[in-house]
Sequence to fold (145 residues):
Amino acid sequence: MEIQGVAGMPDRTFRRLTGVRKRTFFEMAAVLEQAEAVRKARGGKPNRLAVETRLLMTLEYWREYRTYLHIGQSYGVSESTTYRNIRWCEAVLITSGAFTLPGKKALRTSDRTYEVVLIDATETPVQRPKKSSAGTTQARKSATR
Fold:
């Protein structure tokens, strides 16, 4: 499997690039392969991209949140094809139920402590000189008559 030059990457670099470990990537690819086999058995249109490439495209979208147009240009497909492939991967992975994120309760029961820093970024009023209509408007009025 040679996917855009990432197959030979060290595990740490692969995780930095995609956001998941290689082991998780291959588990996701296996789930997608099963769904692809079912789709082909039903007579679905064959996809030009390999399942691993579509998964990498989806992970890149999640990780970098680039536009479909930019991702499509990277893989040599159209924007609509990129959208369909990413939505298909998302739907299959969600319905499999094998890959979930921990909920809020898991964070509460965690042994880690989180430090939260709040930044007040509200707008503050700035005092500016008040415009007086007496100085500028009257001069113009008198000049036009």
